[in-house]
Amino acid sequence: MFIDRARLVVRGGDGGRGVISFRREAHVPRGGPDGGDGGKGGDVVLRVDPQLGTLSDFRFTKEIEAEAGRPGSGRNSSGRSGADRILNVPPGTLVIDRATGQTVADLTAPGAELVVARGGTGGKGNARFATSTRRAPRIAEDGGKGERREIDLELKLLADVGLAGLPNAGKSTLLAALTGAHPKIADYPFTTLVPNLGVARLDDRELVIADIPGLIEGASRGLGLGEEFLRHVERTRLLVHVVDASRPDPLQDIATIDTELKSYGRGLDERPQLVALNKIDLPEAREAAPRIARALADRGISSVAISAAARQGTDDLLRQIFDRCPPREAASSPAPRERRIAFAGGARDWHVKREGQAFRIEGDRVERLASGIDWGSPDAAAYFQRQLIRTGIERELRALGAKEGDTVRIGALEMEWSEQAADE
Asked: Which of these three, 97, 124, 156, is where a domain ends?
C-alpha cells in the first residue's frame, strides 16, 4: 500500500541513574567513592533507505521509543548506553515539527540520518562529586529524561519528470512506454490511485519519471485526488502534460491543468513544460493534433503527437524530455552517514515559577540532581544549595519573592526555603 504521510510520537530513551557506592576492600583503610555513571539513553534516528518508496512501515506504528540507559554500579562501572532506534524512511521524506508546523529537515541523500529525539544523558555517580574536601560524597544524579517529540512525516517523490493530465489521458500507458514500468492500466478514469515511478534511459543518461493520478478541476482546492498528489510533482524539473487529443476540447483540458498548477502554487506553473498529444491512433485525435499543435506553438508551447498505446512518437517524445529537462541542482541534503540533530536545545535548561504560595524549579539537570541527593547528609544538601547559587536559580527565587519558610518544589520533592542556607 502506498502511504505518503505518517504522524509519530518519538521519545529518546531515559539515561541510566548514577549510583552512590563506596569501596570496601581489604588493605584500603579509608575506602572512597566508586559509584559509576549511568548509561546514555538511545536516540530515535531517521535514516534514508533508497530501497523504500513509501511510509507504509508506519501505518500501524504511532509511538516509538528508544532503549533506556542502564544504571551505573560500584567499582566505577558505567552503565550500558541504550541502543538507538533506527527508523528507515524513503528518499524525499520531509520531517515536520507538529509543535511549530515548521519543516525541520528534507531527507533526500541515501544513508543520511536525522536524530528526532535525543536520549537522556546518564546520571553522574558519586565518584564524580569527590573533591579534596568532599571525600565521601553522598550525591549522585538520576539519568536525564529522553526527549519527546510529535512529528509528521510527509513523502514527496524524488522524480525528475512529472506526467500530469486529466483522468484517462493515458499517463500510465505513456509511463510504461517510456520506462518499461508496469502501472495499473485500464480504460476508465482514476485507474491510477497512487503515484507510479519509472526510470527512462537514453544513451548514458537516465531520468526518473512519475505518473501522477489524474487531476480534475478544483484539484488544488482539495477536489478529487489532486491535492494529495500534486505535491509529488513539486520536486520535478519538467512537467509533461498528457492530453487526450480525441476529446472534444483538448485546449480547454490543457487550460484546466494549467489553472490547477497555478492555483496550487509552489512554482509548479513556472516549471518547463512539454505537451504530449496522445491517442493519435484514433482518427479524431490524428485529425485534431496538427490544429492543437499550431495553437500551442502560437503560445510558445512545444508539443509532440504520440500514441502511447501504439508506441508511436514515444521515441521522439523521450528525446525531447531529455533535451528539455534542466540539470539537477547540487544536493543540499546531508551527505551519506552524516547524522544531524533535528531539534537544538535552549541555552538555559531551568525555569523558576510561582505555584500558588509556593515556588517550582523546573529543569532536567536540577531535577536529576535533587532526586539523587542523600538529604540526610549535610554535605550533600550544602552541595545542592551551592549549585542553586552557581546556576542563578537562587537569584531567580529571590527575584520572585521567595522568603524564609516558603515552599520550594523540585520534581516530586518539596522543601522549605532557608535564607540562612542561601547566604552560606
From this structure: 156
DSSP strand pairing (196-202 vs 113-117): unpaired
CB 21 within 8 A of CB 156: no
- Output the CA torsion sign for 127, 132, 138, 140: negative
Torsions phi, psi for 379 (to 5 deg): -65, -45
User: Helix crossing, 378-391 with 364-372: angle to 10°?
Assistant: 170
Q: What is the CATH number of the domain that holds 33?
A: 2.70.210.12
CB 241 within 8 A of CB 170: no
Residues contacting 46, CB < 8 A, separation 6+? 87, 88, 89, 93, 95, 105, 107, 113, 114, 116, 153
pTM: 0.66
Query: Are 258 and 291 in a shared domain?
Result: yes
Which amino acid is located at 171 in the chain? K
Distance CA 164, CA 257 (A): 8
CA distance 294 to 292: 5
Establish if 81 belongs to a structural domain: yes
Q: What pLDDT shows up at residue 286?
A: 95
Q: Could you report the per-residue pLDDT of 147-162, keeping only the tens digit for each?
A: 999 999 998 877 889 9
Q: Residue 403: give its domain's CATH number.
A: 3.30.300.350
Q: What is the mean pLDDT of the chain?
A: 84
Residue that is last in its domain, among 137, 156, 175: 156
